[in-house]
Amino acid sequence: MPSRPDARLERVLATLALVIIALISLANVVVRYVTHASFAFTEEFSVFLLVVLTFAGASVALRRNGHIRIGMLERALPKGPRRALIVLQWLCGAIVLVLIVWFGAKLAWQEYQWQSLSPGLGLPQWWYIAWLPLLAALMLLRLTQQTRDRLRGRLDDES
């Protein structure tokens, strides 16, 4: 049985993000229960880590061919048109991800130039935003790998 493709970096990143979210949320609940006050940083970090978790998890799902899609049309088409549809799916996904990379990088650069600070903790805003184009670029890589494997018949549509 062939091994499933994996996106180890993104899997580790998603796991770390989830663990940190859980730990800081738990700590915030305990501190709030004991002191009737809460940590100020938890919401800002949790939102940032949730974005990291979302993009990293989507990247893993892409690589493992686990994204939700309706494959009825794909399975009904002969090999040639099916391959064209797979390439069209890649093209649509790639366009969206390239736009996220481009505009995310542009926004991160502007935030760096403007020296914008986060509203909650006063940290440089670009620290948070820089992850968006990086993770979108990883998603683009995983999408391309998945498409290549699908075109070569290495990935089962039902997995």
Topology of helices and strands:
Elements: H1 8-35, H2 41-63, H3 72-76, H4 79-114, H5 125-129, H6 131-151
Description:
With 159 residues, this protein is mainly α. It has one domain. It contains six helices and no strands. α2 runs parallel beside α6 and α4 packs antiparallel against α6. It is elongated, with a radius of gyration of 20 Å. The chain starts with 7 loop residues before the first helix and ends in an 8-residue tail after the last helix.
Order of helices and strands: HHHHHH
Share in helix = over 70%
Number of helices: 6
Overall number of strands: 0
Main location: membrane
Protein name: TRAP transporter small permease protein
Transmembrane segments: 12-33, 45-63, 84-105, 125-144
Keywords: Cell inner membrane, Cell membrane, Membrane, Transmembrane, Transmembrane helix, Transport
Task: Characterize this entry briefly.
Residues 21-152 form the Tripartite ATP-independent periplasmic transporters DctQ component domain. This protein is mainly alpha-helical and 159 residues long.
Features:
mainly alpha, elongated, TRAP_DctQ, 159 residues, cell membrane
